[in-house]
Design a protein that fits this description.
- The protein has nine helices and no strands.
- It is mainly α.
- α1 packs across α5, α4 runs parallel beside α7 and α4 packs across α9.
- The longest helix is centred in the C-terminal third of the chain and has 27 residues.
- The N terminus is likely disordered.
Protein backbone atom coordinates (compact mmCIF):
# COMPACT_ATOMS: atom_id res chain seq x y z
CA UNK A 1 0.00 0.00 0.00
CA UNK A 2 1.54 3.31 -1.05
CA UNK A 3 1.70 6.24 1.32
CA UNK A 4 -0.25 9.32 0.39
CA UNK A 5 1.55 12.38 -0.91
CA UNK A 6 2.68 14.60 1.91
CA UNK A 7 2.79 11.81 4.49
CA UNK A 8 5.79 11.75 6.80
CA UNK A 9 6.85 8.18 7.53
CA UNK A 10 10.01 9.40 9.25
CA UNK A 11 7.80 11.20 11.78
CA UNK A 12 4.74 8.94 11.98
CA UNK A 13 6.64 5.64 12.16
CA UNK A 14 8.52 6.61 15.34
CA UNK A 15 5.31 8.07 16.78
CA UNK A 16 3.54 4.75 16.19
CA UNK A 17 6.32 2.91 18.06
CA UNK A 18 6.35 5.45 20.91
CA UNK A 19 2.57 5.25 21.31
CA UNK A 20 2.61 1.45 21.26
CA UNK A 21 5.45 1.34 23.80
CA UNK A 22 3.61 3.65 26.17
CA UNK A 23 0.22 1.98 25.76
CA UNK A 24 1.57 -1.57 26.05
CA UNK A 25 3.43 -0.60 29.24
CA UNK A 26 0.45 1.18 30.73
CA UNK A 27 -2.40 -1.17 29.78
CA UNK A 28 -0.76 -4.39 28.64
CA UNK A 29 -0.40 -5.71 25.11
CA UNK A 30 -3.65 -7.70 25.13
CA UNK A 31 -5.75 -4.68 26.17
CA UNK A 32 -4.43 -2.31 23.49
CA UNK A 33 -6.00 -2.32 20.04
CA UNK A 34 -4.51 -1.00 16.84
CA UNK A 35 -7.38 1.50 16.84
CA UNK A 36 -6.23 2.80 20.25
CA UNK A 37 -2.64 3.18 18.99
CA UNK A 38 -3.90 5.04 15.92
CA UNK A 39 -5.99 7.32 18.12
CA UNK A 40 -2.94 8.12 20.25
CA UNK A 41 -0.87 8.93 17.15
CA UNK A 42 -3.69 10.91 15.53
CA UNK A 43 -4.09 8.81 12.38
CA UNK A 44 -6.80 6.53 11.01
CA UNK A 45 -6.50 2.92 12.16
CA UNK A 46 -5.90 1.73 8.61
CA UNK A 47 -2.91 4.07 8.28
CA UNK A 48 -1.02 2.07 10.92
CA UNK A 49 -0.59 -0.75 8.42
CA UNK A 50 1.73 1.51 6.43
CA UNK A 51 4.15 1.20 9.38
CA UNK A 52 3.58 -2.31 10.71
CA UNK A 53 1.85 -5.42 9.36
CA UNK A 54 0.03 -6.08 12.67
CA UNK A 55 0.13 -5.62 16.44
CA UNK A 56 2.32 -8.71 16.98
CA UNK A 57 4.94 -7.32 14.60
CA UNK A 58 4.84 -4.03 16.46
CA UNK A 59 5.45 -5.74 19.81
CA UNK A 60 8.24 -7.84 18.34
CA UNK A 61 9.89 -4.81 16.72
CA UNK A 62 9.83 -2.94 20.05
CA UNK A 63 11.37 -5.88 21.90
CA UNK A 64 13.93 -6.64 19.23
CA UNK A 65 14.88 -2.96 19.00
CA UNK A 66 15.49 -2.90 22.74
CA UNK A 67 17.67 -6.00 22.63
CA UNK A 68 19.60 -4.78 19.57
CA UNK A 69 20.25 -1.44 21.30
CA UNK A 70 21.38 -3.25 24.45
CA UNK A 71 23.80 -5.52 22.61
CA UNK A 72 25.19 -2.69 20.48
CA UNK A 73 25.71 -0.41 23.49
CA UNK A 74 27.39 -3.22 25.44
CA UNK A 75 29.72 -3.95 22.51
CA UNK A 76 30.90 -0.33 22.61
CA UNK A 77 31.87 -0.54 26.29
CA UNK A 78 35.62 -0.75 27.01
CA UNK A 79 36.81 -4.23 27.91
CA UNK A 80 38.21 -4.77 31.39
CA UNK A 81 41.34 -6.75 32.14
CA UNK A 82 40.17 -8.83 35.09
CA UNK A 83 36.97 -10.74 35.90
CA UNK A 84 36.36 -8.48 38.91
CA UNK A 85 36.68 -5.31 36.84
CA UNK A 86 34.56 -6.86 34.09
CA UNK A 87 31.81 -7.76 36.56
CA UNK A 88 31.78 -4.26 37.99
CA UNK A 89 31.67 -2.70 34.52
CA UNK A 90 28.83 -5.04 33.48
CA UNK A 91 26.82 -4.24 36.64
CA UNK A 92 27.18 -0.49 36.24
CA UNK A 93 26.43 -0.63 32.51
CA UNK A 94 23.29 -2.70 33.06
CA UNK A 95 21.89 -0.25 35.60
CA UNK A 96 22.63 2.86 33.52
CA UNK A 97 21.34 1.42 30.25
CA UNK A 98 18.10 0.12 31.72
CA UNK A 99 17.28 3.19 33.79
CA UNK A 100 17.27 5.26 30.60
CA UNK A 101 14.61 2.96 29.06
CA UNK A 102 12.08 1.99 31.74
CA UNK A 103 9.15 1.33 29.37
CA UNK A 104 11.21 -0.81 26.99
CA UNK A 105 12.57 -2.82 29.94
CA UNK A 106 9.09 -3.31 31.38
CA UNK A 107 7.70 -4.55 28.08
CA UNK A 108 10.73 -6.75 27.39
CA UNK A 109 10.03 -8.73 30.54
CA UNK A 110 6.27 -8.47 31.01
CA UNK A 111 5.11 -9.09 27.44
CA UNK A 112 7.28 -12.07 26.48
CA UNK A 113 4.25 -14.29 26.97
CA UNK A 114 2.43 -12.46 24.17
CA UNK A 115 5.01 -13.18 21.48
CA UNK A 116 4.41 -15.88 18.91
CA UNK A 117 6.69 -18.92 19.40
CA UNK A 118 8.91 -17.82 16.51
CA UNK A 119 9.25 -14.25 17.80
CA UNK A 120 9.79 -15.51 21.34
CA UNK A 121 12.66 -17.71 20.14
CA UNK A 122 14.34 -14.74 18.45
CA UNK A 123 14.09 -12.54 21.56
CA UNK A 124 15.25 -15.39 23.79
CA UNK A 125 18.30 -15.87 21.56
CA UNK A 126 19.19 -12.18 21.90
CA UNK A 127 18.70 -12.34 25.67
CA UNK A 128 20.91 -15.43 25.88
CA UNK A 129 23.64 -13.56 23.99
CA UNK A 130 23.56 -10.79 26.59
CA UNK A 131 23.33 -13.16 29.55
CA UNK A 132 26.18 -15.29 28.20
CA UNK A 133 28.51 -12.31 28.46
CA UNK A 134 27.84 -12.11 32.19
CA UNK A 135 28.07 -15.88 32.55
CA UNK A 136 31.46 -15.85 30.82
CA UNK A 137 32.70 -13.20 33.26
CA UNK A 138 31.50 -15.32 36.19
CA UNK A 139 33.03 -18.50 34.75
CA UNK A 140 36.39 -16.76 34.17
CA UNK A 141 36.31 -15.45 37.73
CA UNK A 142 35.44 -18.85 39.13
CA UNK A 143 38.11 -20.60 37.07
CA UNK A 144 40.80 -18.17 38.23
CA UNK A 145 39.72 -18.42 41.88
CA UNK A 146 38.42 -14.85 42.10
CA UNK A 147 34.74 -15.79 42.45
CA UNK A 148 33.10 -18.47 44.57
CA UNK A 149 30.14 -19.39 42.37
CA UNK A 150 28.43 -22.78 42.56
CA UNK A 151 26.44 -22.40 39.33
CA UNK A 152 27.27 -19.67 36.84
CA UNK A 153 23.90 -19.82 35.03
CA UNK A 154 21.82 -19.40 38.19
CA UNK A 155 24.15 -16.66 39.43
CA UNK A 156 23.83 -14.88 36.07
CA UNK A 157 20.05 -14.89 36.28
CA UNK A 158 20.09 -13.79 39.93
CA UNK A 159 22.42 -10.85 39.23
CA UNK A 160 20.39 -9.67 36.25
CA UNK A 161 17.15 -9.92 38.25
CA UNK A 162 18.72 -7.91 41.08
CA UNK A 163 20.03 -5.24 38.70
CA UNK A 164 16.68 -5.01 36.91
CA UNK A 165 15.05 -4.26 40.25
CA UNK A 166 16.54 -0.76 40.21
CA UNK A 167 13.98 0.20 37.55
CA UNK A 168 11.10 -0.45 39.91
CA UNK A 169 12.10 2.09 42.54
CA UNK A 170 14.84 4.49 41.41
CA UNK A 171 13.82 8.04 40.56
CA UNK A 172 16.19 10.77 39.45
CA UNK A 173 16.40 13.48 42.10
CA UNK A 174 15.64 11.03 44.90
CA UNK A 175 17.63 10.37 48.06
CA UNK A 176 20.46 8.61 46.21
CA UNK A 177 22.29 9.69 43.08
CA UNK A 178 22.79 7.24 40.22
CA UNK A 179 26.52 6.82 41.02
CA UNK A 180 25.60 6.04 44.65
CA UNK A 181 23.04 3.45 43.53
CA UNK A 182 25.57 1.89 41.14
CA UNK A 183 28.14 1.67 43.97
CA UNK A 184 25.66 0.07 46.39
CA UNK A 185 24.49 -2.47 43.82
CA UNK A 186 28.06 -3.22 42.80
CA UNK A 187 28.83 -3.94 46.46
CA UNK A 188 25.92 -6.41 46.62
CA UNK A 189 26.92 -8.12 43.37
CA UNK A 190 30.52 -8.36 44.59
CA UNK A 191 29.46 -9.94 47.88
CA UNK A 192 27.23 -12.41 46.03
CA UNK A 193 30.15 -13.89 44.11
CA UNK A 194 33.03 -13.81 46.63
Amino acid sequence: MARTAGSHSDITGPRVREAALSLFAQHGYAAVSMRRIAQDVGVQAGALYNYTPDKQSLLFDLMRGHMDDLLQARALEPQSATPLDSLEAFSRFHIRFHLERPLAVFISYMELRNLTPENFATIEDLRRRYESELETILRDGRDTGVFDVADTKITTLAIIAMLNGVNTWYRSGGRLSLPEVEAIYWGMVHKAVT
